[in-house]
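Progress against Task 2.4 (sequence-to-structure conversion) is shown through the following example record, which the project officer requested during the mid-term review.
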Amino acid sequence: MALLMTVICLAAHGRAFNDKDIERFYNLTPDEFVDCSNDYAKRDVIDSAMICANIWANKYGKVELTRDEIAACCCAYRLMGMLYMDEFHNYELATKNLLIAQQIAAEHKFSEQHAVATEDLVIVSAVKNDIMTNFAYSKEVMDKFKQSYGTTKNTIYQSHNQPTEYQFLSINNIIANIVYLAIKYDKTQDVVSEIDDYLNIVKTNNSKYKYNEVNLCQTIKLVNQGEYEKALAFHNLNLPKDPGLSPKNLLAIQQMREIVQYLILMKCKRTKEAEAILLKLEKVCHDNNMTFELLEILNMLQHHYEQQGNDALARRHEFLYYKTKDEFISKSLITKVDQIKLNNELEEARDYINSINYRHKMQTVVLISVITLALLAIGILVILYSKNRQIRKQNEVLYKKNVELVQADTARKQTTSSTPRTTQDEAAQTALLEKIEGVMLTSEEIFDEGFSVNRLAELVNSNRTYVSQVINDRRQCKFNTLLNEYRVKEACRRLLDKENYGNYTIEAIARSVGYKSRANFVSIFKEITGLTPSAFQKMGPK
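C-alpha cells generated for the chain above:
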C-alpha cells in the first residue's frame, strides 16, 4: 500500500512508472541500489530516487535478507526521510522514516548509519525549535549536535583505518551545522574544541570532501581572535565545489556561507553590504521555493531593520515572517514531530510485549485489541460529543455576551467622540472617572506596550495617586485590570472586523492592542471573555 501511494503521488508530479521500472529497482544488488538511489538524489531526480528507496524499504521484515541487504534497507529509509524533509517539507513522514532507519541501524549494529540517522533527527529537531521559538538560540539543539559529532568522531577513531567517504560526509555535515549555529548566535567560543578536533581529523586523513567545512572552521578561529576583516577575506575565498552534491544542496551551502558573510560584515560595521546580502537571499529563496530558508531570512531582516531603527521595514518583514510561518507549519506538519517520536517509543514497547507470545496468541491479542480499541473509541467519541455540545452552547452564550459588550463600547465611543460630556455639578470623582473612561474609549495610546497609569494621569490632567484611587473606588479594580478590559474589547472588535483585520494572525492582533506575548494575551483574553481568541474568532461571521 505504501509503495502504491508513493507511485501515485510521484506520477502526479509528472513521472510515470511501469512494471519494468519497479522490477528493475527490486532486483538491484545492495551496492547497485545505494549507487543508483544516491545518483538520482544527487541529480535531483527525486521521483526515481523515492520509488527506488521505497521498493527497498518495503523489503525489510517481509522477505529474508542478507546483512548487506538489510543495510541497504536502512539506507532506503534514511534516504526517504531526507527526501521528505528536503524536497517535500513533510516533517511528519521524514521523522517516521528516519526513526525506522535509526532502529534498523541500532538493531543490526550499523554504527555509521545509526550516527547519520541520529544526526538527521537532530536536524529535524533543530528545524522544529527554530520554527517554534522564532529562531532563538537553543543550547539543547547545540548540545545534540555536539553529541552527534562526538559519536561520529568516535566511530572514525575506533575504525583504526582510513575513514570512509560515508564517515567524512557525516562528520562534515555535523561540523557545518555546529559552526553555523555558533557564528549565527555569537557562541563561537563554545565550539573551539570541536573545531580544533575536526581540523586535526582533516589534517590526519586527507579527504576531498572538506573545502567548505575547513573554510568555516578557519573563519571561526579568526572571528574568535577579533580579526573580522581577515575572517571576511578568508571566508570569501573561491572554493572548489564539493563533488557529489546536488544543485539544491549546493544552493543551501551557498546560502549558509552568505549568511555567515552577513554576520561577519555586521561585526565589521559594513551595514549596507550586509543588508544587500539578506535582500539577495530573500529573492533567491522566493525564486527557488525554499520556504524554511525564507523564514530564516525574513526573521534576520526583521531584526536587522530593528537594529537600524527602520520600524516600517522591520514590521513589514515581521508580518511576512508570521504569514510564511503559518503556511509552513500548516504544510510541513512540523508540530507533529514530538508526537511521532513519542508514538514510536510506545510502539517499541508494545511490540516487545506482543513478541513474547506472538506465535501462540497473536490472533487472540489482535482480536481483543481491535474490539477493545473500538469500544474505547466509541465511548470516547460519545463522551467528547456530549462535552462538545455543552461547551459549544456555553461558548455561544459567552460569544453573544462579548459581542454585545463590544457593540456597547463602540456606541459609547461614538457618543464620547461626537458629544463632549460636561460634569456640571457632579462630584469630582465622577468627573475624573468620566475623563478616564473617555481616554480608554478614544485614545489609541492605550494600545501602546508601555502605556501606564502615569501616562493616563497626564492625559486626564491629574496625578497617579488620585487616578488609581478613583479606579479602585469607582470601578473596584486596579489600573491593569481596567486596561486589559479595554484592550480585550478592542481585540474582540478587530477579530470580528474581517475587512480591516482579516489577514492578521492572532499574534498580530495581540501586538496591535499592546501585548508582546501571545501566551499572555490568550490568558488575559480567556480570563475576561471566557473564550480563547481563536474560539471567539471562529464563532464570528464568516
